[in-house]
Fold this protein.
Amino acid sequence: MTESELDIHRSATDIAEALRADVREGLSAEQKWLPSKWFYDATGSRLFEDITALPEYYPTRSEREVLAREAGAIARITGAHTLVELGSGSSEKTRLLLDGLRDHGSLRTFVPLDVSESALAEAVEAIQAGYPGLDVRGVVGDFTEHLGLLPGEPPRLVAFLGGTIGNFLPADRGKFLRSVRDVLAGGEWFLLGTDLVKDAETLVRAYDDAAGVTAEFNRNVLRVVNEVLGADFDPDSFEHVAHWDAGNEWIEMRLRAPEAVRVSIPGAGMEVSFEAGEYIRTEISAKFRREGVTTELAVAGFEVAHWWTDAQGRFGVSLARA
Ligand code: AVJ
């Protein structure tokens, strides 16, 4: 892996600076919170890969079922020359799309974008080895900030898979969808994966697995804050909570301090106190309904051309035209 193969929009100082700002804002709020993107250092990215193999975590398998079934159709409909994947992680499901586009004969460039440099570097290497002749341009960056810098020749297909759209608060979601629409020309494509509303038990189990992998993933954000900002969180003392908010139709992950504790975060110049039972909201993972997805895409300036789900109706994939 040579450096020129990764386009890095985030240096170590950028990262520390951005984390410091988020920690200062989120941990001084009345209801403490941290953005979920900070889960994904090398350890967190690996833990997330482990989550996707858990028996309780169905979204990855459900989405894969749809992509395996529809990749050929997606290639035929879009005829994309460039596949851009936002938050690509290991790019494992992307292979289904790459295979479809390659077999169709239109694919030239693949642009995976991810905040995790380690996950991206691995993915770029693996994809390059598996697809000789494909121009792979990895971009390390934050898809909320670096969308305008995407390379690749049109028509492009931007894929945002895994249900990661659910990690935005509703207002940010609208802005994000708009920003995707704004970097595309009319007639280009957006492929969006959305986890769907279902019974609470299935949902909560997917975010609170018996083996405790999701709990470790959740606590990893405190390890990241310790490492980058020199904080003295005791991650193991915080309890993992996965709460289904039926009103908002989202899963909320929390880290709960069972006892009062004071934490020092020198890199953010702050001390943070927790009362017994007080928690940090570390992630929301919104669940969707077909009508809601179609409406939100329309408001952002897309037209939904296709809607597919897995056989059990657990996960939805929309193909929308800009
Ligand atoms: C990959 C962001 C979609 O919200 O389901 C998995 C992350 N969090 N288990 C999700 C996650 C807890 C995941 N996304």
